[in-house]
Amino acid sequence: MKDVIYFDNNATTRIAPEVLEEMLPYFCEKYGNASSMHTFGGSNKRAIEKARANVASLINADPQEVIFTSGGTESDSTAIYSSINSYPNKKHIITSAVEHPAVLEVFKKLASQGYKVDFIGVDTNGRFDMESFKKLIDDNTALVSVMWANSETGTIFPVKEIAKIAHARGALFHTDGVQALGKIITDVKETDVDLMSFSSHKINGPKGMGGLYIKTGTRFLPFMVGGHQERLRRAGTENVPSIVGFGKAALLAKEHLKDTGKIAALRDALEQGLTSSIENTKVNGDTQNRLPNTANISFGYIEGESILMMLDEYGICASSGSACTSGSLEPSHVLRAMQVPFQFAHGSIRFSLSRYNTIEEVNKVLEVMPKIVSRLRALSPFNPSTFSAVK
Amino acid sequence: MWEYTDKVMEHFKNPKNAGEIKDADATGQVGSLVCGDALKLTLKIDKETQIIKEAKFLTFGCASAIASSSVLTEMIIGKTLEEASKITNQDIASELGSLPEEKMHCSVMGMEALEAAIQSYKQGGKPVIYEQESSSKIVCKCFNVSEETIIKAIHTNKLTTVEDITHFTKAGGACGKCKAEIQQILNKVLACENPISAKKQFKDLTIVEKIKEVEKVLNEEVKPRLNLDGGSIELIDIQGNIISVRMLGMCGGCVNAKNTIKSFVEKVLKEKLDSSLEVRQA
Q1: Entry pTM
Q2: Domains of chain B
Q3: Interface pTM (ipTM) of the complex?
Q4: Domain spanning A17-256 has what CATH number?
Q5: What is the spatial distance between Cα A126 and Cα A337, in angstroms, rounded to a whole number?
Q6: Catalytic (active site) residue B35
């Protein structure tokens, strides 16, 4: 396989070598079941608790407030169903229009089962519509679930303020923190969230591993039942190697939080380079308040999948909110909620960086991207002058 | 990641006949920025022989849209208008090896642009934007797809599900509100092509046909309704025209189960299959 330039870290990340090293003994040597009565298995319990302490420390939680799950999706489902089933008399739930499908689809399903569901919109910069949220929440609201940061644009939501308003109405507040974790400070005590989902593979840990923060005193009903693990809050034999890996990844992420300025500098170099060398581009998201690693740029009048396929020729990995990449026929729900015009929505490319990216890699993208865009624009029947005619 | 054939990738990377003929004899356009793909096809045609001498395209869209346009220009150059007009979207797709199901609408776009271009030539070269038959009703308002187009896609490509129709025509791919209507159109077309159930009376069907017919109605018409109340239904037996069913889930313990069977399940089965049917609780 040719050298890869990886700018798709909001999709997934490489496992850090230190993380892999930490995991390896737990496959063939220390493979015991942490619930066993023998030291061989039982001692793995200590490894799990050490990992839990590291994960808890990254979000400033107490270790007993964190359970391990199979990933962000399970954590989201767990949090949502636990919250509504803990308050069965309340039949109203609120989320945002730009959530990850792991939240959005659950809310849509609940709507079809009779819940009153409000999807709070965003403005053209992707910012949460706090005013309509304040108007729509009431005493019948069981749960408010709003992501900490948006995966596509990196826009950060005011979770502290949303949590406060939810609590004033007696509602639980859950946040999908999958994209925020390890990229910005996510302090659950300072923000006073009740539940927070997160995932290991977005912070250089293994896939199929995640966690859920449950604030002490929050009503909780398990999603997976049939075992005493995780203090009866998540049944199933612990995935020891992945838990250990996640713990190490969390430890590293905490250390590297102070370096996110470097990633932001690379991101800015990429974004400014592209928008200054290529005409008819548009940066999507709240540039004043977003994740340090994410740039979402639309290249007008051409289509995202074509751009990605051409980047792929150079070994450059990114992603797109274009309709064609998903098979859904419509551009990303996030960009649509932001009312990004169609001539830009179809050509949106997300570059998401990590601490492993270099300025050389950024320069490579800056070198090839203008060529790709002009090639595709030469094929396109649209340009700014024709646009009014074909609209 | 899409599974594109080498030929799709080759036409995407090195498209043939890209561009626009300035003094074209025919110009056909289809799609828009809103839809996410669009194609402008320009042709040079020999007035005497009616042979397409030159063809160029401009395409806004994904790799398969660009490849479909490129291969289309190769296919039509050297053909007479008469020959070219017979090219279907299936021909375009097979020329490329194949296209992913979800991308079949790219080949349909090629066919439509060609249709528009041929019309343009007949009208003296004035550019023609492909439009659905104006007499035909628009079914999918999001993508502006007409009943005519849907029926044509069903026939040409032997489609059997609403999902297929969405892949080929985009209809129902956005808000999804028209999916029920697409299903009805599909049912109508299939009933015409496959008129077994329409001709034979229920009592004349084989037992396997009976089971299939009843299951189909239960799955499509009855279960979705019961699911809303957290319940479901299963077929237990068929004796002559008497159908035995069992209510499941929330409906299983429901005091109204018998009522539901008579007033809802039996009514639907009678409507859809045969008015002589009787439904009983097993």
Answers
A1: 0.81
A2: 6-129 (3.90.1010.10), 138-194 (1.10.10.1100), 202-281 (3.30.300.130)
A3: 0.85
A4: 3.40.640.10
A5: 8
A6: yes
